[in-house]
Amino acid sequence: MVGGTTLSYRDSHRRPGYGRYYERTYEHGYYAEQWRRIERPLLAGMLRELHDHGARSLLDFACGTGRILELAETIFDDTWGVDVSATMQELARERCPRSTLRLQDITEEPLPRRFDVVTAFRFFLNAEEPLRRRVLRAIEASLEPGGVLIANVHVSSTSPVGWFYRARNHLRPAKRAKTLSLSAFGITIETMGLRVLEVRRYGYMPRPGPLLPGLAGRLVEPIERLCEATPLVPASLAQSFLVVCGREGEEPRWRGSGR
């Protein structure tokens, strides 16, 4: 909130200095450990499998500081990133020297080409529903025939953290924390000409917050492996989920089976 006015999700990322602030999120703590130990290996495996099946180009939508794009450069030769935040993209340019970067709103101005793979991480949860729809429509138009979208949601409404946030929202409606369910996101995806091909859930250790900064580093990976191996733990309890989507009516290059 700035001057009593709530910024849109898109405008909030255009603030001066936001890139450095965002980057610190992944320097330590829960999200840093989750990225290094769980999310990055998971995404790397999926991207390599796509590449092995013939995908050659990748666009990272809302590429931010280049965290996803930096990984993609190790697998794909043809990588692009697009974002509306100049401060975020300054860091991406330092981090991803081989990628083509565009400071552009593709919901208003489409890119001049299409891609085999589009990634979109840490965007759809916080984006307003009309923006989600516009972005999904723009991504669908950016896919090559048979291409896929890989997108994540980092606070599932069915996880313990999601339950806590929803309960807290009733007590503190002026400061709402966002959650998103797989079913609700799936409906939005389908209305935009895409279909969900695979779902991967991860992040079974609830985020401990700032009180126990070293806890995530010690426990996030063993808890993840234990919960994945235990049939009694419902997959819906994972804090994050990832969806792989293809265009409706097309056969995708790659399809897997989620948990």
3D structure, described in words:
There is one protein chain. The protein is an alpha/beta fold and 259 residues long. It has a single domain, classed as Rossmann fold (3-Layer(aba) Sandwich). The protein is built from 9 helices and 7 strands. Strands 3-2-1-4-5-7-6 form a 7-stranded mixed sheet, with helices on both faces. The N terminus is likely disordered.
The strand count comes to 7
Q: Report the uncertain regions.
A: 1-7
* CATH class bucket: Alpha Beta
Q: State mean pLDDT (0 to 100 scale).
A: 88
End-to-end separation: 39 Å
Order the strands across the largest sheet as they lie in space.
3-2-1-4-5-7-6
Structural class: alpha/beta
Number of helices: 9
Number of domains: 1
CATH-derived topology? Rossmann fold
The CATH homologous superfamily is termed: Vaccinia Virus protein VP39
Order of helices and strands: HHHEHEHEEHEHHEHE
* Morphology call: globular
User: Proportion of β residues?
Assistant: 15-25%
Percentage of residues assigned to helices: 25-40%
Largest sheet: 7 strands, mixed
Kindly provide the radius of gyration, computed on alpha-carbon positions and rounded to a whole number of angstroms. 18 Å
The appropriate CATH architecture is 3-Layer(aba) Sandwich
